[in-house]
Design brief:
About 25% of the residues lie in helices and about 25% in strands. It is of the alpha+beta class. β16 and β17 form a beta hairpin. α8 runs parallel beside α16.
Length: about 700
């Protein structure tokens, strides 16, 4: 069948849409078993130290209180792979907000009131939460998240950079950022005859199941984790979080089902954040703007609980021609909450710095910013030397420039004006790696002509159910409405989590393979199906191993264009237009793909203009605890936003020819907006977010000079 004849590649409406808008879709905290109790956690009130007393007796006498768990009486856990799950196991307080107790009561109100009343005494130590480039504890880790080498050097940067005709040396700073999904992290747990069932707000129920098996010393058959509907995660729900262990622990202790939804004000300390970074970028180029030397050096933080290193220098190993290159990461272990995954970890942070520096290089060399990027297109991946499986960044830049009207741009900053408003435009490129993990799936054909696909995928709002059904219908040559999909339970065939823009590629590959086998079996049965139907099961373990050994560098690319206005009276920056063009393999569903691209771009607006988590140095805690103080973009902040893509046929990916699309939309957005602000106001700010207080003094000085 050709693409035009199949459901794959069509803008099919997401299958769960009606359930979500009518309230029929059930989330983790909306499951209430009979006799359900409610838990409320108690966060540490010191930034570093130890608990010396928990006055549980005082609150056990309060109405409805069933239990108070702390390190003094909580069930002992086996050591987890992730230390943040070792909750209530000892008296140590590694950072403010670390959970030191859990109150369980008959109602949510009683649990909350008792947790508020619980007196906990501490022995407090001096804390250190300040990240600086001269911190005495800075060290070079072995790797920056996973298999990314912490340091890479090619050529002789120290000799090439001073010899360059044009040089840029700039430092870019980002505060911490938090995911803040609409649905807080929540779990409902119950034990039935030794079997633990948990409804958890997670991007991967299989990983949560494995963590619970480990900490409670169980077998896999004794645990079921369900994550049927998830209200956003953006990485913060990519790994198991403390609430799922606490809920299961409380349910075992009380003998009743227990529901625990983390209060919004506690999330900043316990579910991860994008670590703050200080990034020095040095670019050396010829008079024509072609880069001869590139250095991207990152300083960031981790916690004393575990090491997590934001791999912000890694994108610089992919993007541009750079015969002499140095990319490195240094990290300090501070008394702060543990950083973790946030949409496009590494790429979002690193590409902000790199693409801002590219804009500065374009100005210094007198080359148009789009043209500069075109001149620095590499023939192969700079770091590895491997050929790209496909790289259509050039097409993205040119198509984006055409759609945006870039040719009408006056390159001089501070020229366009409407009353008190200065107007400007900016561009930035984007990249994200192609990732895939082993997955299993089953495909079943019933005598009535319907099909059932079973795979433990997770739909975090991306439309996974819909796209997987489209993949199955495409292989089976069946109507889309005849295919049903079951996802979101650890009892289903094993599959990886929704993260790293790898979900559809991983799950879809196993679904595709299972459906190919099913189709073969159906062709061998011309006499019709038995009453029980026919089932095929497949795994992609071998295919993924072969893909990882591929001689090709596999990445998605994109180009972002932004138009902004800068109010010279208030210092406020508003985005007027935002346009993205992407090269992301075959687009399997244009409707859900556009939604993903636009969602990432909207999140990038927040990264550029409004979002920051400020560390209170004296208190040792993030100051922004809710959506009133942590400002995410609203509809009024996104007046005109467009997402487009170029056709890309890449045979080196997976049977669908797809690349991940969930994260690349955020990658270049902040830099494009920052570059547009410079074009509008002639002011180069190198610290995100670009809030009015940072701009006003520059605008006043500029106005005074006119």
């Amino acid at each position: 069948m050709t693409h035009a004849q199949t459901p794959l590649g069509t803008p099919a409406v997401r299958r769960e849409a009606r359930d979500k808008v009518t309230g029929a879709a059930r989330y983790a905290a909306e499951h209430t078993p009979p006799g359900c109790a409610y838990a409320w956690p108690v966060p540490a009130a010191v930034a570093r130290g130890r608990v010396t007393a928990v006055h549980a007796d005082e609150v056990l006498a309060l109405p409805g209180v069933l239990a108070v768990l702390s390190h003094e009486n909580a069930p002992r856990l086996k050591e987890p792979d992730d230390p943040i799950l070792a909750v209530l196991q000892n008296a140590r307080v590694p950072h403010r907000g670390w959970y030191v107790a859990l109150v369980v009561a008959d109602t949510l109100e009683n649990a909350s009131a008792a947790a508020e009343a619980l007196r906990v005494e501490y022995e407090s130590d001096e804390h250190d939460v300040r990240l600086t480039t001269s911190h005495p504890g800075l060290y070079t880790p072995e790797a920056a998240n996973g298999e990314n080498p912490s340091v890479r050097e090619r050529g002789d940067f120290d000799a090439a950079y001073p010899a360059a005709a044009v040089r840029i040396d700039a430092t870019y700073t980002m505060s911490a950022l938090h995911n803040h999904p609409m649905e807080p992290h929540a779990s409902t747990a119950r034990w039935d005859d030794g079997h633990l069932t948990v409804h958890d707000s997670s991007q991967g129920s299989g990983r949560v199941r494995d963590a619970l098996v480990q900490v409670f010393g169980l077998e896999q058959r004794q645990v079921t984790v369900v994550s049927e509907h998830v209200g956003g995660g953006f990485g913060s729900k990519g790994t198991p979080r403390p609430q799922v262990v606490l809920a299961a622990m409380a349910a075992r202790h009380t003998g009743r089902p227990v529901k625990l939804a983390l209060p919004r004000r506690q999330l900043a300390a316990v579910v991860g954040h994008r670590a703050p970074t200080v990034q020095r970028v040095r670019l050396g180029a010829g008079a024509d703007g072609v880069i001869t030397a590139l250095a991207h050096e990152v300083v960031t933080q981790t916690s004393t609980v575990k090491e997590f290193v934001e791999q912000a220098a890694v994108p610089a190993r992919v993007m541009y021609t750079s015969p002499h290159s140095r990319t490195s990461h240094q990290v300090a272990a501070l008394d702060v909450p543990s950083p973790s995954w946030m949409r496009a970890p590494g790429e979002a942070s690193g590409m902000y710095a790199l693409e801002s520096a590219m804009d500065e290089l374009a100005i210094a060399a007198g080359v148009d910013p789009v043209e500069l990027r075109l001149r620095n297109e590499p023939d192969t991946e700079p770091d590895s030397g491997n050929p790209f499986s496909s790289r259509h960044l050039t097409e993205c830049l040119r198509e984006g420039a055409r759609r945006f009207g870039w040719e009408r741009r006056d390159p001089r900053p501070g020229i366009r004006r409407e009353g008190d408003l200065l107007l400007g435009t900016g561009v930035a490129a984007a990249t994200y790696p192609v990732l895939v993990s082993p997955s299993t799936a089953t495909a079943h054909a019933a005598p009535d002509g319907t099909y059932l696909i079973r795979v433990n995928a997770t739909d975090i709002g991306t439309g996974a159910r819909t796209v997987l059904a489209q993949i199955a219908a495409d292989v089976l040559g069946a109507p889309l409405e005849s295919v049903r999909v079951e996802i979101g339970s650890s009892d289903l065939p094993v599959a990886p989590l929704a993260g790293g823009s790898s979900g559809t590629a991983s799950w879809g590959w196993s679904v595709h393979k299972a459906c190919v086998l099913l189709a073969e079996r159906l062709r061998d049965r011309p006499g019709g199906l038995p009453a029980e139907g026919v089932t095929a099961a497949e795994s992609t373990g071998q295919e993924v191993v072969e893909a990882e050994e591929s001689p090709y560098a596999r990445h998605a690319f994109g180009a972002h264009f932004a138009e902004v206005q800068v109010d010279t009276v208030t210092g406020e920056v508003r985005v007027r237009r935002l346009l993205g063009v992407y090269a992301a393999g075959r687009i399997l569903n244009p409707r859900t793909a556009r939604s993903q691209f636009i969602g990432g771009m909207a999140m990038g607006i927040g990264m550029a203009l409004t979002e920051e988590s400020t560390m209170d140095l004296a208190f040792g805690d993030f100051a922004e605890h809710d959506l009133a103080s942590y400002h995410v973009p609203a509809c009024a902040d996104v007046p005109a936003i467009e997402a487009h893509w170029v056709d890309e046929d890449d045979p080196h990916l997976n049977p669908m020819g797809s690349k991940g699309i969930g994260e690349i939309g955020i990658v270049g957005t902040a830099a494009a907006i920052g570059n547009a602000v410079h074009h509008a106001a002639g002011v180069r700010l190198r610290e995100l977010p670009l809030t009015p207080d940072k701009l006003l003094s520059h605008l006043s000085a500029s106005a005074g000079g006119e």
